[in-house]
Each structure stands twice: as structure tokens, then as C-alpha cells.
Specification:
The protein is of the alpha/beta class and about 350 residues long. The protein has 2 domains: about 1-175, Rossmann fold (3-Layer(aba) Sandwich); about 175-345, Dehydroquinate synthase-like, alpha domain (Up-down Bundle). The chain is built from 13 helices and 11 strands. It has helices spanning about 25-30, 45-60, 80-90, 105-120, 130-140, 175-195, 195-200, 210-225, 240-250, 255-275, 280-290, 300-310, 335-345, and strands spanning about 1-10, 10-20, 35-45, 65-70, 100-105, 125-130, 145-150, 150-160, 165, 320-325, 330-335. It has a 7-stranded mixed β-sheet with strand order 1-2-9-6-5-3-4, with helices on both faces. The protein has a two-stranded antiparallel ribbon with strand order 7-8. Bound molecules: nicotinamide-adenine-dinucleotide (NAD).
Length: about 350
């Protein structure tokens, strides 16, 4: 069974979600797009696992494919790597009527999306997410970016995909720690906008993952449709991320993104309680622990504050925090940066 979720942003596109549909990707594209060349970007872990299935299916459906495979990991998410992919498209004479395709996790999705945004001033691209994080978050919504030495995701563009094609069976080959990192984002969706989802995922291993992913995608779709260019409500998706990014950065990226966000969600809940909201720290921390994440911050309030101040999301002297008002209902609270420092000190950081 294939579930279809439609996103109506600056481009309207479908997200097709199935369990076991990867070998039918060619047919799905044939129903939507004219025959063309598809430039596939993937990494050296994902391509050996799924590259053949995808290329064979696309070619059987009448598409020509060219593949560019890069080393896996965040260190590949650079302008140089994007240039490498663009050069591959130039050599393969990819034109504006052709397409790029991201086969991989968030790193590949962000890079292929950015290359597609800038090559020939923009060509269509398809997301085939293969990590839980990419499935529920990065493949939907059109944010693309690469890292530069000054920081992560500092160069990028908004460029919505033409299609997102997800086979949840591909998640079965993920390292357990990579899968777990994705669950931090799943828990996040529950806390920010859906109490029922929070309750469902509160018990690891008791729910249908494909259904949970579909619900997360619907939430992301709703947020993106309401605020495609991240000027307001889309900020809710940063729940746990202000503190999480600071922890990730201070650790020199030895604490993974998901683990850092998990810690950040608990800090945000503690801060919310000091701010005067109901205290949901216990419930959120319990779920986070049940997924095997560590809790607490190895860094002091002052250390976190220094990093938060240098974060690109700060506007003027104020910081906007995403705080849970209820489980399933977060709000954006703008406050002076110094207030954030005080609140962190009050919770004992
Ligand atoms: N654009 C957005 O809106 C957005 C949102 C959140 C995160 N991001 C970005 O996403 C990136 C993180 O994404 P990620 O966590 O998917 O990391 P990733 O793409 O690096 O994937 C993690 C690891 O899993 C491997 N892998 C991927 N799929 C696999 C599979 N099916 N089986 C086995 N191994 C597999 C990869 O090779 C890699 O080693 C970051 O760069 C972050 O900035 C973007």
C-alpha cells in the first residue's frame, strides 16, 4: 500500500510512502514526469545497498541515469562536493528538463537539493530519503544547504522537491544509533503539535513505524504550508534545537545531532517550567530515556549561552525559544538573550 501526502508550497508535490516500494520508483516517476536523464547523488554506504534497485527501476521505466557517489557523512556536505555533483551533471549534459535525485539521508538530500537549486538556475529534484531523520524531516519542506568553515548550513536555498519517494524498508539497514537519532525528531513532533503522537511513540517498539512516519510528515507538511520561508510558525520545528545545537557544537560534534536534540528538549521543558508554564519535564525526559538517550547537559549555562548567541537564528538582542505549554502544544517565546541565560542558571546548568 502506498500513502500519498500532498504538499502545497511554492511548488505542489507528493510524498509517496510505502513499505517495500523502492523497486517501483521508476513506475511512480513515469506516471508523473516525461522521460529524461536523472542525475543520482548518493553516498558510499547507501548506494551499494539501494543504488542498483533504483537505477534498474528508473531505466526500466525509460529514464536515463547517471550516478555520483560521495563519501558518507556530514564532512561531505561542502560546496566542493556540490561542485563535484554539478560537474557530473555538466559532463552528462543534464539540462533544465532533466532531474536530480537524492538517494540517502539528510546530508545527501541537502546537497542534491542545493545543487538542483543552483545548477542552471534551478532544475527539479526528487528526494529518496533513507534515514528516519530524512524521512520525517529533511526531505520535506525544501530547505537545502551545505556547511562552510564558519558553520553548518550557512549556505543554502529554499527549493521544494518535485517528489519525495520513501520506502520505509530501507530504514532496516540503518545503524541503530542513526535510527535512534531520528526518533529524537519523531518525539519532537509529538511534543510540539500532537499529543496523540507523543503518547503513541512513548512506548518504543509498540507502534507501526510507517504510520508514525506518515503522521510526522503530515505535521511537517502543515507547518511548511503555513510558513514555507521560516518567518514564524516553522520555528516550532526548532524545539530542543537551540540548546541541542549548542551542545552538539560544544562537544565538537562527538555528541550526535539526535542525542543533542534529545537533551535540548529536556532543557527546553525545564526552562518552560521556570518561565511559568506547566512542568512536563518528567514525561518528556522519560520518553527520551526510554529510547536510550542520555539526559542532562555536560556544559554550563554560560558555555551554552555563548554558543547560542553566535547562532544564526538569533535576531537582535532577543532569542526565540520553543517552549511546551502543553504536551502537543508548543509556543514561540521571544525574550531578551540575558533572560535565557538566567533561566538556564535557574534550572541549575
Ligand atoms: N533540510 C532540512 O530541513 C534538514 C532538517 C534536518 C536535518 N538536516 C540535515 O540532515 C543531515 C543529517 O541527516 P542524517 O541524519 O540522515 O545523516 P546522514 O545523511 O549523514 O546519514 C547518516 C548515516 O547513515 C547512513 N545511511 C543512510 N541511509 C542508510 C540506510 N538506509 N542504511 C544504512 N546506512 C544508511 C549514511 O551513509 C550516513 O553514514 C544534517 O546535515 C542536517 O543539517 C536538514
Amino acid at each position: 500500500m502506498t500513502t500519498r501526502i500532498t504538499v502545497k508550497a511554492s511548488g505542489t508535490y507528493d510524498i509517496l510512502l510505502s513499505k517495500g516500494g523502492l523497486s517501483r520508483i521508476g513506475q511512480a516517476l513515469k506516471e508523473r514526469f516525461k522521460p529524461c536523464t536523472i542525475a543520482i547523488l548518493s553516498d558510499d554506504k547507501v548506494f551499494p545497498l539501494y543504488g542498483k534497485t533504483v537505477t534498474q527501476s528508473l531505466e526500466a521505466a525509460g529514464f536515463k541515469t547517471v550516478c555520483h557517489v560521495i563519501p558518507n557523512g556530514e564532512q561531505s556536505k561542502t560546496l566542493d562536493s556540490v561542485t563535484g555533483f554539478i560537474n557530473c551533471m555538466v559532463q552528462s549534459q543534464v539540462t533544465r528538463t532533466d532531474m536530480a535525485l537524492a538517494l540517502g539521508g539528510g546530508v545527501i538530500g541537502d546537497m542534491a537539493g542545493f545543487a538542483a537549486a543552483i545548477y542552471l538556475r534551478g532544475i527539479p529534484y526528487i528526494q529518496v530519503p533513507t534515514t528516519l531523520l530524512a524521512a520525517v524531516d529533511s526531505s520535506v519542506g525544501g530547505k537545502t544547504a551545505v556547511d562552510i568553515s564558519a558553520g553548518k548550513n550557512l549556505v543554502g536555498a529554499f527549493h521544494q522537491p518535485a517528489l519525495v519517494y520513501l520506502d520505509t524498508d530501507t530504514l532496516s539497514t540503518l545503524d541503530p544509533s542513526v535510527l535512534r537519532d531520528g526518533f529524537a525528531e519523531v518525539i519532537k513532533y509529538g511534543v510540539i503539535l500532537d499529543r496523540k503522537l507523543f503518547d503513541t511513540v512513548a512506548k518504543p517498539g509498540t507502534f507501526d513505524l510507517t504510520e508514525v512516519i506518515a503522521r510526522c510528515i503530515e505535521i511537517k507538511r502543515d507547518v511548511v504550508e503555513a510558513d514555507e520561508f521560516d518567518r514564524g510558525m516553522r520555528g516550532l520545528l526548532n524545539y530542543g534545537h537551540t540548546f541541542g545545537h549548542a551542545i552538539e557544537k560544544l562537544s565538537g560534534f562527538t555528541i550526535t545531532h539526535g542525542s543533542a536534540v534529545a537533551r535540548g528538549m529536556i532543557i527546553a521543558a525545564q526552562v518552560a517550567a521556570k518561565y511559568g508554564f506547566t512542568d512536563y519535564t518528567g514525561q518528556i525526559a522519560q520518553v527520551v530515556k526510554d529510547y536510550g538517550f542520555e539526559t542532562g547537559s555536560p556544559y554550563s549555562a554560560q558555555e551554552l549561552y555563548n554558543v547560542i548567541l553566535s547562532d544564526k537564528k538569533r535576531s537582535g538582542g532577543d532569542i526565540t525559544l520553543v517552549l511546551p505549554k502543553e504536551l502537543g502544544q508548543c509556543t514561540l517565546e521571544k525574550m531578551p538573550a540575558t533572560r535565557v541565560l538566567e533561566l538556564m542558571k535557574e534550572i541549575g546548568l
